[in-house]
Write a structure and sequence with these properties.
The structure holds 2 protein chains of 2 kinds.
Chain A lengths: L7 E10 L2 E11 L4 E5 L6 H9 L6 E6 L9 H4 L2 E4 L11 H9 L8 H7 L15 H13 L5 E5 L7 H16 L3 E5 L3 H7 L2 E6 L2 E7 L6 H4 L2 E6 L2 E6 L3 H12 L3 E6 L3 H20 L21 E2 L1
Parallel strand pairs in A: 3-7, 3-8, 5-6, 6-7
Antiparallel strand pairs in A: 1-2, 1-4, 8-9, 10-11, 10-12, 12-13
Chain B lengths: L16 H20 L2 H21 L18 H32 L1 H6 L5 H30 L8 H25 L6 H18 L11 H9 L1 H13 L15 H22 L8
Helix pairs in contact in B: 1-5, 2-3, 2-5, 3-5, 3-6, 3-7, 3-9, 5-6, 6-9, 6-10, 9-10
The complex binds adenosine-5'-triphosphate and magnesium ion (MG).
Magnesium ion binds next to helix 1 of chain A.
Membrane topology (chain A): Peripheral membrane protein
Keywords (chain A): Antibiotic resistance, ATP-binding, Nucleotide-binding, Transport
InterPro entries (chain A): AAA+_ATPase, ABC_transporter-like_ATP-bd, ABC_transporter-like_CS, ABC_transporter_ATP-binding, P-loop_NTPase
C-alpha cells in the first residue's frame, strides 16, 4: 500500500444490466482524506457506481481500485477498512440499537466505542429500543452508525440523510466533519446539494451514466454559470444583469435610480449550477436523439430559486 | 488536507480461524436471542412438535394402546407411540424449516447484504446459525421429553446404550438438518415466498416419514420414496430408542437398521455441506 495512491481510482468504468447501459465510461480519483460527492438525477448511476466500489456489483468494463485492491476481490482485511451505508436496508429489527452496534463492532479489528457512536448519531434515548420500533429517520441513523462503527479508512455513504429532520442533518454534518478531521476518506451521494456544498471537497455530476462535470465545489460549472446576478425593479418591471463585479453594477444603479426597489445580488448556488449542468446535458442528449442542431445553451442560466448569499435591499 | 490515517491494524494473522470461531460464538448468542424474539418461528418451529404431540395423544387416547393384545392389555400409549416421530420432526423443523425460511428472509430484507459488506467470515455466520439451531433444538427436545413424561406418563429409556444411540442419531440429524436448511434457503426467490416454498414439502415429508402416520402402515412404494429423505431415518432411529424391542418387527426388514440411518444421514450431511460451500453467496450480485 502506497500512501500517495488515491483511496479510490476509477477508470472508464462501464456497467450494463442486460441490454441497458447504466454507466458509460466514468473516470475519477478520490484522494486519501478527501470528501467526494457524487451528484446526479434519479437513475443516473450513482448507486451503481458506489456498489461496484463496495464490491456488491461486478463492473462490465474499465478499471476500479479501492484502497489498493480490486473491489471484486476484496477480502476480509479489505472489508475491515471500509464502511458502508447503503441506499436502502430493511432488516426485521428484533434487536436493540445497542445490541446491533455491539455485535457489528465485534467484526472489526479496531472499532469505535459503541456509546460514542450512539451519541454521535443522536440515539442515546433509543439505545435500548428494538430497531423495528424506531422511526424511519432513526433507523437511517442506525445505518449510519453501523457504517462508522468499524473506524473505516474509507466510508461510502449512499444518500445517508434520507428521512433526517433538519436538526439530525446538522448533527450528521458534524459527525462527517469529525470523521474528516480524523483523515477518513468519504464518498457521498446526496440529492441535498447544500449538503454536498457543506461537506465535500470535490464533486462529480453524472447524468445518464456519463460524467458531465467534476471538480472542487466552487469551480463546478462554467464561469458564466457561476457569475452572480443583480436583480432590481425599474418602473415596476423586473430587471436582471449577470456581472462578475456586482458591486459596480449596484453603484451604477444607485447613481441612476437612487435606492433601487427590490434589489438583490444572487450568487448561483450549487443547486443552480447543478440544474444547469444536468439540464444542458439532457437537452444535448434530446437534441442528438432527434438529429436537430443543438439549441443555444440557454438552459445553463441559473434559476431564480437561489437563496444563498442573498442580499436584499 | 493531510491524511492522518490510523495505522491499518489489519495483520493477516488476525483474520485466521481463531477469529472465525470467536465471531461464530458471538453470532450464536445473537442469533438465539433473535430466534426467541420472533413469535412466528416460536410457534411454527419451536412449539409445533409439542403441540402436535399433545393433540395426537389426547385425540387418539380413546383408541387404546398401540400394539395391544386383543383384550386391550399390553402395548404402548398413543403418546409413547408418537414421541419418536415428534422428536424427529422437531429436528427437521429446527434445522431445515427454521434456517431455510430465516436465511431466505435475511437475503431479501438486506441483512445478508449488510453482513457481506463487513469483515464477518461466512463460516462465522454459519456457525452462528448452527449454534442457534443446536441451542433451540435442545430446548425443544427437553420440552418434548418433559411433556411426554410428566403430562402423558411416557416411560423414557433407562439403558445407557439407548441414550448413546439417541445422542448420535440426534447430533447427526440436527447437523444434517441445519446444513440442509442453509442449502435450501437459496430456493425461495423472495422473503415473502419463503414459507410458501419451504413449509409444504416439509409437511409432506412428515406425513410420509412416519411422523403423523405409522410408517409400517404406509404402502411399500411410499416407504421407498421416504427412504430417500433424511426424516424417515431420523424417525426410525428415534423409534429404536423409545419403542420396545418388539416393535422392530414392523420396521422394513424387521430391524431398526441403524447402520442404514447413519449412512443415509451422513450422505445428506456431506451433500448439504458441498451445496452450501458451492452455492452460498451473501447476495445475488447485481440485485
Ligand atoms: N439490478 C438492476 N437491474 C437492472 N437495472 C438496474 C439495476 N440497478 C439499477 N438499474 C438501472 O440502472 C440505472 C442507474 O441506477 P442507480 O441505482 O445507479 O441510480 P442512482 O443514480 O443511484 O439513482 P437514485 O438517485 O434514484 O438512487 C437506473 O436506470 C436503474 O433502473
Ligand atoms: Mg441510488
Amino acid at each position: 500500500m502506497n500512501a500517495i495512491d488515491p483511496a479510490v481510482s476509477v477508470d472508464k468504468l462501464t456497467k450494463s444490466y442486460g441490454s441497458f447501459t447504466a454507466l458509460t465510461g466514468v473516470t475519477f480519483d478520490i484522494e486519501r482524506g478527501e470528501t467526494f460527492a457524487l451528484l446526479g438525477p434519479n437513475g443516473a448511476g450513482k448507486s451503481t457506481t458506489i456498489e461496484i466500489l463496495e464490491g456488491y456489483r461486478d463492473r462490465s468494463g474499465g478499471e476500479a481500485r479501492v484502497l489498493g485492491s480490486d473491489p471484486q476481490r476484496g477480502g476480509l482485511a479489505w472489508k475491515a477498512r471500509i464502511g458502508i451505508v447503503l441506499q436502502s436496508s430493511g432488516e426485521s429489527g428484533n434487536v436493540t440499537v445497542r445490541e446491533q452496534l455491539t455485535q457489528f463492532a465485534g467484526y472489526y479489528p479496531n472499532p469505535r466505542s459503541v456509546d460514542e457512536v450512539i451519541a454521535a448519531v443522536g440515539l442515546e434515548d433509543k439505545a435500548n429500543t428494538r430497531l423495528k420500533s424506531l422511526s424511519g429517520g432513526q433507523r437511517r441513523r442506525v445505518d449510519v452508525a453501523l457504517g462508522v462503527i468499524g473506524r473505516p479508512e474509507l466510508l461510502f455513504l449512499d444518500e445517508p440523510t434520507t428521512g433526517f429532520d433538519p436538526e439530525a442533518r446538522r448533527h450528521f454534518w458534524e459527525l462527517i466533519r469529525s470523521l474528516k478531521r480524523e483523515g477518513t476518506t468519504i464518498l457521498l451521494t446526496t440529492h441535498y446539494l447544500d449538503e454536498a456544498a457543506q461537506l465535500s471537497d470535490r464533486a462529480a455530476v453524472i447524468a445518464a451514466g456519463t460524467l458531465v462535470a467534476i471538480g472542487p465545489i466552487d469551480t463546478l460549472g462554467s464561469d458564466e454559470a457561476r457569475t452572480p446576478i443583480v436583480r432590481w425593479l425599474e418602473n415596476g418591471i423586473a430587471r436582471e444583469q449577470r456581472a462578475s463585479d456586482p458591486g459596480r453594477v449596484v453603484a451604477e444603479l444607485v447613481g441612476r435610480l437612487g435606492e433601487p426597489a427590490g434589489l438583490e445580488i444572487v450568487r448561483p448556488s450549487l443547486e443552480d449550477i447543478y440544474l444547469g449542468l444536468v439540464g444542458a446535458y439532457e437537452a444535448d442528449l434530446a437534441s442528438r436523439a432527434s438529429h436537430t442542431p443543438r439549441p443555444p445553451s440557454a438552459s445553463s442560466t441559473p434559476s431564480a430559486s437561489s437563496t444563498k448569499d442573498q442580499v436584499s435591499a | 488536507m493531510t491524511a492522518a490515517l490510523q495505522a491499518p491494524a489489519t495483520r493477516a494473522s488476525s483474520f485466521g480461524i481463531g477469529r472465525t470461531l470467536r465471531l461464530g460464538a458471538a453470532r450464536i448468542g445473537y442469533e438465539t436471542k433473535v430466534y426467541f424474539r420472533q413469535s412466528d418461528t416460536l410457534f411454527f418451529t419451536f412449539l409445533f412438535p409439542v403441540i402436535m404431540l399433545t393433540i395426537f395423544s389426547v385425540a387418539f387416547q380413546g383408541m387404546g394402546n398401540i400394539g395391544a393384545n386383543p383384550d386391550g392389555s399390553g402395548g404402548i400409549s398413543q403418546a409413547a407411540g408418537y414421541l419418536p416421530g415428534m422428536i424427529a420432526a422437531g429436528i427437521l423443523l429446527s434445522g431445515v424449516q427454521n434456517l431455510g425460511t430465516d436465511i431466505a428472509m435475511e437475503r431479501s430484507d438486506g441483512t445478508l447484504k449488510r453482513l457481506g459488506g463487513t469483515p464477518l467470515p461466512v463460516l462465522s455466520y454459519f456457525f452462528g446459525k448452527m449454534g442457534q439451531v443446536l441451542a433451540t433444538s435442545l430446548l425443544q427436545l427437553a420440552l418434548l421429553l418433559l411433556v411426554a413424561h410428566f403430562a402423558f406418563g411416557v416411560d423414557l429409556p433407562t439403558e445407557p446404550a439407548k441414550w448413546m444411540t439417541f445422542a448420535w442419531v440426534y447430533l447427526l440429524g440436527i447437523a444434517t438438518s441445519a446444513v440442509l436448511g442453509i442449502a435450501i434457503s437459496r430456493l425461495p426467490r423472495s422473503g415473502k415466498s419463503a414459507t410458501a416454498v419451504i413449509i409444504p414439502p416439509i409437511l409432506i415429508l412428515q406425513f410420509i416419514s412416519g411422523v403423523y402416520l405409522q410408517f409400517a402402515l404406509l404402502p411399500d412404494w411410499l416407504q421407498s420414496v421416504a427412504s430417500i429423505f433424511p426424516l424417515k431415518w431420523m424417525a426410525q432411529g428415534m423409534r429404536s430408542v423409545f419403542l420396545p424391542e418388539s416393535f422392530a418387527a414392523v420396521e422394513p426388514g424387521g430391524v431398526w437398521n441403524l447402520a442404514g440411518a447413519a449412512i443415509a444421514l451422513l450422505i445428506w450431511l456431506v451433500g448439504g455441506l458441498v451445496i452450501c460451500r458451492l452455492t452460498f453467496r451473501w447476495i445475488r450480485k447485481d440485485s
